[in-house]
TrEMBL record:
The keyword Iron does not apply. The modification N6-(pyridoxal phosphate)lysine is found at residue 96. It comes from Ceratopteris richardii (Triangle waterfern). This is D-cysteine desulfhydrase. The keyword Translocase does not apply. Belongs to the ACC deaminase/D-cysteine desulfhydrase family.
Length: 406
């Protein structure tokens, strides 16, 4: 029986049955309970890849919603939709969760008692790995890269560090110079050797979780989008373009391969936030070769330079833009990844409106909100003013319902 209409004065709004809400509820019926290992079967269009992962562990909140994003100043007829991979969880949130579902399953299958990973001092990947490890009763060792002047002092509790240290990750600092000299692979191996000599059983996860196994997380995301589109009526034709930030390359590799192999077929654009396009094409090629995908990276993805001043460094214009988008749409982008990617995308749309006009674009928000805390000082000038609330002097009302707290 249909429920009676709500009176127009009611503060309760009728349940939202817009296409967005439909897309949010559908899909992913077959996921096992959280933190439980399950055997894995690939989407049919990816079953020829090898090696195939045999197991995964459910860690995140999926499917993530897809909804329309009313961005200002789009070219005529361009629609932008957003996939909310920033909502894959709370402490364990963002794009890394998808990769960790496969990487952690391998760690467990190999009998690891701890995991090692590496990243910048505000690495979202390191924070997600630390939380996932704790959920699965594994210790976590993090090698974090910081400035030379900071390498011998307590790194503090800002942003991702707070969560990492709350869940008991072992934080080990290296300077940028040391990181450059030895490389992430060698540093990870050094720590692994040390832990092995202490009788531990470590599993080493590369920077950003970006190896050929981690890429499966974003092949799965394409299967998820496929299901969301199949079960909704809002976008029977799917999307023309897929856009995301590209940092260590795994997310872009997975989406590019998934949209190439699946029936969805869309152009995939990775906005590089740290290295040059050449570097990313080569790195992604290595990931694809590791899956025996038999395809050229350059044929399936367009890498765009969006690094600006460099990794994790923001111009004032980028930060003002992140603020402007938050104020206009309610979506808060992180300054290091999705903020730069959208900044680059809207720049491209402005420069070449003809290429984007009439297109349906899906932007993947990959999370990273905690990284914003590292930029508080630089953000301050863009934040709106505050003032003290003025209580009218004539007020004679006694306080009611104050409660014991006050
Ligand atoms: C929030 C966020 N978005 C995007 C990326 C980029 O993803 P990937 O490393 O898979 O290229 C990262 C990590 O590097 C990240 O932490």
């Amino acid at each position: 029986m249909a429920s009676p209409p709500l009176p127009s004065s009611s503060p309760i709004r009728p349940r939202d049955f817009t296409p967005t809400a439909v897309m949010t509820r559908c899909a992913q019926k077959h996921r096992p309970p959280m933190f439980e290992e399950a055997s894995y079967s690939p989407p049919p269009w990816a079953s020829h890849l090898h090696p195939l992962p045999s197991r995964f562990i459910s860690l995140g909140q999926f499917p993530t919603p897809i909804h329309k994003w009313n961005l200002p100043n789009l070219p005529n007829g361009t629609e932008v939709w957003i996939k909310r991979d920033d909502l894959t969880g709370m402490q364990l949130s963002g794009n890394k969760v998808r990769k960790l579902e496969f990487l952690m399953a391998e760690a467990k299958a190999e009998g690891a008692d701890c995991v090692i990973t590496l990243g910048g001092i505000q690495s979202n990947h390191c924070r997600a790995t630390a939380v996932a490890a704790r959920y699965l009763n594994l210790d976590c060792f993090l090698i974090l890269r910081t400035n030379r002047t900071q390498v011998d002092v307590d790194p503090g509790l800002v942003g991702n560090l707070l969560v990492e240290r709350m869940v008991g990750a072992h934080v080990e600092l290296v300077s940028k110079e040391e990181y450059r000299q030895h490389g992430s692979e060698m540093l990870g191996k050094m720590l692994k050797k040390k832990l092995l000599s202490e009788g531990r059983a470590p599993y080493l996860i590369p920077v950003g979780g970006s190896n050929s196994l981690g890429v499966w997380g974003y092949l799965e995301a394409v299967r998820e989008i496929e299901e969301q589109l199949r079960e909704s009526t809002c976008h029977p034709d799917g999307f023309d373009d897929i856009v995301m930030a590209c940092g260590s390359g795994g997310t872009t590799a997975g989406l590019a391969l998934g949209f190439h192999l699946s029936p969805l077929k869309a152009r995939v654009h990775g906005y590089g936030v740290c290295d040059d396009p050449e570097y990313f094409y080569d790195f992604i090629q290595g990931l694809l070769d590791g899956m025996n995908a038999n395809v050229a990276a350059r044929d399936i993805v367009n890498i765009v330079d969006a690094k600006g001043l460099g990794y994790a460094m923001s111009t004032n214009a980028e930060l003002a833009f992140v603020k402007e988008i938050a104020e206009a749409t309610g979506i808060v982008l992180d300054p290091v990844y999705s903020g730069k990617a959208l900044f680059g995308l809207l720049r491209d749309m402005k420069e070449k409106p003809g290429e984007w006009s009439g297109k349906k674009v899906l932007f993947v928000h990959t999370g990273g909100l905690l990284g914003m805390y590292d930029k508080l000082q630089q953000l301050q000038p863009f934040i709106s003013k505050w003032k003290r609330f003025q209580i009218p002097e004539s007020t004679s009302e006694a306080g009611m319902n104050v409660g014991r707290m006050f």
